[in-house]
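Continued from yesterday's entry.
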Amino acid sequence: MRRLVPVLLGVVVVAASCASDAPQTTLEPKGPKAQSIDTLINPVFAIAGVVFVLILGGALFVALKFRARDDTDYDEFPNQVHGNFKAEIGWTIFPAVILAAVGVVTVVGIFDLAKKPPPEALQVEVIGQQWWWEYRYDIDGDGTFDEIITANDLVVPAGREISLNIKSRDVIHSWWAPALN
């Protein structure tokens, strides 16, 4: 265990010092839809973090407090304690309320994100190829996507809503614009 502490400390120091001149901007929202996603994600992560710390703290407390001692008689059963009704109701209802609240906020956010874009939104067809992405723009709004075609880089005008129609030509692809979440 004593050998592990310096190694872990070294890993933490190295990880903390990585890319100090290049801040991580992956989850910085750059539009109203991305802001909506960010507004949903941050409280959910905070709640999950608090729950994680509480559960891990409780587990460590129980493991350390009730660990076997040198003078333990393994033939003797420890004191048997049966349920505490109030505690059981509490730890059943409290998580259910948290899950219901997160569920309601999530559904509201999903409905907000699922709204159709306005007709004047720039239509972009995103086609996944095996080794690259193809972007076809409908500049004049007539439904044809052959006015401008680019490869790998999505370029859109600032301040204008866009609608992405994502397709795949061959295999399953995942597409993500980090700044749009």
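--- second protein ---
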Amino acid sequence: MPSNGSVVVWATDLNAGSYDNCTKKADLTYTFASATGAASDTFTCADVPNGVSATVEVDIYVTDKAGNSDFCRTYLLIQDGNGNICQDQAGVAAVIGGKVATESTEPVENVILESKTTSNAIPAFKTDSKGTYSFSGLPMKGDYSITPKRDDDPTNGVSTIDLVLIQKHILGVQPLNSAYKVIAADVDRSNDVSAVDLVELRKLILTVYDKLPNNTSWRFVPKTYNFSNITTPWGFPEKIDINGLSKDELSRDFVGVKIGDVNGTVTPHSLLGAEAREAGASLKFRTSDRQMKAGEEAVIEFTAENFSNIEGYQFSMAVRGLELKSINSGILKVSESNFGMTKLGEGYVTTSWNDSKGISAGSNDILFSIKVKATKALTLSESLIINSKYTRAEAYNGAGSLGVALEVGKNSVAGYALHQNTPNPFKATTVISYELAKADKVTLKITDVTGKVVRVYTQDGVKGFNQKTVNRNEVGGAGVMYYTIETKDYSATKKMILVD
């Protein structure tokens, strides 16, 4: 504080790099409090209640030539200095503030901080996108306890890759390298990382849980706290205590830990867009198409074309018109615990699988199968769809993330294919083409939408490309029809349309 007991601060002095797409930087105007406020403000000893130092909150507005404006909130630290111009006052107010950020220093928004004291009730503070908080006007000499809380959006940053990393930590293959990651892995809040945490986190991924039953979605650690052992960080404080407040405390920071997120993919504030996790490549699951009548049961076998060193995957799958009867392992060890059934009412199941060793399978290997029962007449290609409706569709191969897709129709056995008839729709004739891995007897069956067989053809198929011409007068009246080819090793179905 200058010897005259006042100091003038210009709003432009607090500009950190404002710019406009039309107005030159030199022509922008800066004001306090509002777009039409004063360009400067004067601060005196009256702004330093304790006579030593005070933090003053100010709003800085920047306005372009067209009158458009925006503002940011910042803080001025006003100190009396060595001159002791301002008279020291005992028992007046001070400020406690700081920042809440992740281990990677990203601010954490929407954290509710509570300040407790034995003497006064203090309103809670909610962090903005910058993660800062400030309790002002706190009586000096008081004892205070600052506790942050956030318990929303539990799946933020959580995916099956976290299960992979937690499993590797449990097995000692790749231990988590920070105390904060170990805290994030303790999903059930038991002060231990175990297989139970994998079970609980998978239920969250599968939407079996809409929140963790024994934990909050975030936990917070004072930034200055030093862990004696990062592998067993238990017993850490989750609040900051200040006894006998004697000055402004402006660096009382916390580290926010998103439970379940051990690879740091959480979106902690609104200014940070959600991370795009899918790479250009995709893991493509395959299964054969078929037409099913209401009440008919079938086993649907899943293969994949590029299942190489896969450590995990997850996705949502539409199963419209299908009742799930059982789940069976193939190359992959799966059970009902790998599937979520809570969205069956909406026609979906969710799935999550992982193996820390990374699994590879050939294109003909059956990964897993599900037994289903049709609740109506349907075609699998119209019922089975993989997407991210409830559980995001992605896979992991040790090098990064992959997209996930499902191809229904091409058989998992290499060398076989059923092509779309041409032309389609057709009036007089159409050609159905297919490919065989080897010469074989082929049955071509035409059915209507009810599943009634209207025509059956048999052929001696050759290895490679084959064709069959279908005449209108052989299959009846106009409408939607299905054609199915069957051999000893392959079957597939597609839809065609006959028009008048």
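The chain has a mean pLDDT of 90. Residues 417-498 form a domain with the Immunoglobulin-like fold (CATH 2.60.40.1930). Will compare against the first tomorrow.
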